[in-house]
Write a structure and sequence with these properties.
Blueprint lengths: L2 E2 L1 H9 L6 E5 L3 H15 L8 E5 L4 H9 L8 E6 L8 H12 L5 E6 L11 H12 L3 E4 L5 H14 L3 E2 L1 H11 L3 H15 L3 E2 L1 H7 L4 H13 L3 H13 L4 H23 L4 H8 L5 H11 L4 H18 L6 H18 L7
Parallel strand pairs: 1-6, 2-5, 2-6, 3-4, 4-5, 7-8
Helix pairs in contact: 1-2, 3-4, 4-5, 6-7, 6-8, 10-11, 10-12, 11-16, 12-14, 12-15, 15-16
């Protein structure tokens, strides 16, 4: 079972090496759309009524088979796209038809089978594995297009800024990723705004603060950063902003807690003689490695006792928020004070 990733797929398309069949899946919607477009446009124009055909998961597979098997009109090849066919729920007969479509390919057609809303778990699903094997038998490729890692996203941003006439160093690019998240669509939109605002000038962290709208996760990250620095004024001001945004208190608590979970995983991994790569693999941090970078920095102010006391405070706040007649704002304000005091003194406020 051979699964390729973006770097290999990109090289093959750039070299003009187009396979007769593709399975496109993964967790990055932008990349999937982009590479489906790249492959299809290398075969024929999408406005070519006779040689470019698209089908969704509701279509009969016989229609897809007919489209693939028919010769192109005044062209070397045609392109056929099948989107979101729910192969897991298909009956045995239809599933075997899909297997045949992938394995019995034609020199005159390129078939792209892509999955957006339909899950394609190539590691656990026996049916998904069978489809990959069928595509491989037909001389095709199975490509998993997942979220890019932070360094790759940063390079995309710096290169993109240069093409738009501005300069953005890696520090500002990484800060933008931390501020708005790893979604490529959103990052590109923010980059367009930043370049338009900069109008040829350098894009710095200050520019990002002035122009870009921080994600909720980034705002709560600033909250936890102030807690770790024992900056109660900054933390309470950020909390005030989150309430102004009408963010659910339980989501605020969950995001604060996740920072402590990140730290504890690193702490436990070190105790077990494991490293960051092990944490990324086991807990699914691929593409979000910068989260662990933050946690490594924050963990310098903690030991086992401080982490334990912090979790006690977080659990108590969770119970209070889920009880009746509780004032969420007061609970979270008290939590911030408790957590900051633990960082500063290594004990709870109650014992002070």
């Amino acid at each position: 079972m051979a699964v390729i990733f973006e770097d290999t797929l990109k090289k093959e398309i750039s070299s003009g090496k187009i396979a007769p069949v593709y399975l496109i899946f993964g967790d990055d919607a932008y990349l999937k759309r982009r590479y489906v477009d790249k492959i299809s446009s290398s075969v024929c124009d999408k406005d070519d009524f006779f040689n470019f055909q698209k089908f969704d998961g509701e279509n009969e597979l016989q229609s897809v088979y007919d489209a693939v098997s028919q010769l192109p009109l005044m062209a070397d090849r045609k392109c056929v796209i099948l989107s979101d066919y729910d192969f897991e729920r298909a009956d045995k007969s239809d599933f075997e038809k899909l297997v045949t479509l992938l394995s019995d390919t034609y020199d005159s057609a390129v078939l792209i089978v892509c999955f957006d809303s339909v899950e394609f778990d190539y590691k656990k699903s026996s049916k998904a594995k069978k489809l990959i094997a069928a595509a491989e038998k037909g001389g095709g490729r199975a490509a998993a297009l997942n979220h890019r890692r932070a360094p790759e996203l940063a390079k995309m941003l710096t290169d993109g800024a240069r093409k738009r006439g501005s300069n953005m160093d890696s520090t500002a690019a990484k800060y933008l990723i931390e501020s708005v998240g790893t979604d490529i669509n959103l990052l590109i939109c923010e980059l367009e705004k930043l370049c338009s605002f900069a109008n040829g000038a350098d894009i710095t962290k200050t520019t990002v603060d002035e122009v870009s709208v921080k994600s909720v996760e980034a705002s709560v990250y600033n909250l936890t950063k102030d807690i770790f620095a024992c900056n109660l004024t900054g933390a309470l001001d950020t909390l005030d902003g989150l309430f102004f945004m009408r963010l659910e208190p339980i989501i605020i608590l969950h995001t604060i807690s996740s920072s402590y979970v990140d730290m504890y995983r690193i702490y436990a991994a070190k105790k077990a003689g494991k490293g960051i790569p092990d944490i990324i693999s086991v807990f699914g941090y691929k593409g979000r490695e910068f989260v662990l970078d933050r946690a490594v920095t924050a963990l310098k102010r903690f030991d086992g006792k401080k982490l334990s006391l912090s979790f006690d405070a977080l659990i108590a706040a969770d119970r209070q928020l889920k009880s009746f007649n509780s004032d969420a704002r007061i609970i979270l304000e008290q939590l911030i004070v408790r957590l900051a005091y633990i960082v500063a003194k290594g004990e709870t406020v109650d014992k002070a």
